[in-house]
Write a structure and sequence with these properties.
By secondary structure, this protein is of the alpha/beta class. About 35% of the residues lie in helices and about 20% in strands. It has a single domain, classed as Rossmann fold.
């Protein structure tokens, strides 16, 4: 089992912590203080970024040394919110938060996943009436294999996981966040996810 540090103690971080602990992993959740995040990252093998996407780059760049050589799973979306608080635009158009993190942290293995669904689906993919899709983007194949194994621990079937390729492919699933406000306004705040139909 892995030692995992989750940066972010909100709904996303909390649900991932509960599910991964239940799966047998040793999980530490860091609060918003820089010291807490640095200590958690230093002792973990895998770090999950569940911090708000609009501030993730600054937060994680400050952790360059503790993140060196580690796997960083990025589940956040970097957006500019509209007046109603819903995502209205991308913070990094023509790029992605994952790409920005990989550029800023060249000695860290960034893997993007689980950002194309409401948070409850991340740890309960079988709760939907149709199979959802979890996308993987990252430059290091071995790191993506490790992340894929973690996803299966969260209940994801292997044929529900699609490896898109290098970290530059993360901009496509990150752009899917722009669907979210329209779906919620249309159907209400119910669990949903992007799914590839074949």
């Amino acid at each position: 089992m892995s030692k995992i540090a989750i940066l972010g103690a909100g709904r996303v971080g909390g649900s991932l912590s509960t599910a991964l602990t239940r799966a047998g992993h040793h999980v530490t959740v860091a609060d918003r203080s820089p010291d807490s995040a640095a200590d958690a990252a230093r002792t973990a093998q895998i770090i999950i970024n569940a911090t708000p996407g609009d501030s993730s780059l600054d937060r994680l760049t400050a952790l360059r040394e503790p993140l060196r050589g580690k796997i960083l799973i990025d589940v956040s979306n970097a957006t500019i919110d509209g007046p109603d608080g819903f995502p209205a635009d991308l913070l990094y158009p023509g790029s992605s938060l994952a790409e920005q993190l990989q550029q800023a942290l060249p000695e860290t293995h960034v893997v993007k996943t689980l950002n194309t669904m409401l948070f409850s689906v991340m740890t309960a993919p079988t709760s939907l009436t149709q199979p959802p899709t979890a996308f993987l983007s990252g430059d290091d194949p071995q790191s993506k294999q490790i992340v894929q194994a973690l996803l299966t621990d969260l209940g994801w079937h292997r044929d529900w996981i699609t490896d898109l390729g290098g970290i530059e492919t993360a901009r496509a699933p990150e752009a899917a966040i722009l669907f979210v406000p329209h779906v919620i306004r249309s159907t209400g705040f119910a669990p949903f996810a992007i799914s590839l139909a074949r």
